[in-house]
């Protein structure tokens, strides 16, 4: 692929958007390649995915304004759907996804990070939804996921003012889980992914599904979702292995995702 690089490091996948000269901006070709790369991930061999951008300046500096500037209403809606479909695929991927935000996460870049389960950022990271200053709204889920992540009031302020949020404030708002020096970001992302990958994959995926499916339901309905996923973990090799080891006061054997 021209703009997407993918590496498999044991149980961890690392996907890099590599359009560095354009600050990794998302055009139709990048979105097509990103979609194909997500589809190609071997979910039997991969327990956590890290998404980042090439270079030190930018995670993703938004969608490609040059491509968008001449779109008709119908074309704009179609472009929004294309981005939304890819980001929703990332959001609902069975395995956890970490965004390693190395610099600008503007517009579509902020939206891409919001589609991931966990965001960690470099000290030079900057988040913003600047679309209103360009005469449009966010089109890849920003109006929905931002409010669900940092609260309606602050999300509206970011959307209406197009204001930029630097890494320390992003941490304070809960937009990111942690901030690191730029040179340590990928090392820390790998450490975090490794901690996730060390646990029972079936259980981790069930946790992700329970949160994703239950978060917008009333509590009684959400607890039913949890109960069913809780039950689905029993009679698996990993559950028997871990619980037997616990009872016998020893470390479990490596998990096998069965």
Proportion of helical residues: 40-55%
- Overall, the morphology is globular
β-strand percent reads 15-25%
Across the major sheet, the strand order is 1-2-3-5-7-10
Mean pLDDT: 97
> Kindly, what is the distance between the CA atoms of the first and last residues, rounded to a whole number of angstroms?
32 Å
What does the model show?
47% of the residues lie in helices and 16% in strands. The strands form two sheets. A six-stranded mixed sheet has the order 1-2-3-5-7-10, with helices on both faces. It is globular and about 65 Å long. It has 258 residues and is an alpha/beta fold. It has helices at residues 28-40, 65-68, 73-91, 108-114, 142-150, 152-161, 167-173, 185-197, 201-214, 219-232, 237-247; strands spanning 4-9, 12-17, 48-53, 58-60, 97-101, 104-106, 118-122, 126-128, 165-166, 178-180.
How would you sum up this structure in a few lines?
With 258 residues, the chain is α/β, with parallel strands linked by helices. It has helices at residues 28-40, 65-68, 73-91, 108-114, 142-150, 152-161, 167-173, 185-197, 201-214, 219-232, 237-247; strands spanning 4-9, 12-17, 48-53, 58-60, 97-101, 104-106, 118-122, 126-128, 165-166, 178-180. The model has no long low-confidence stretch (mean pLDDT 97).
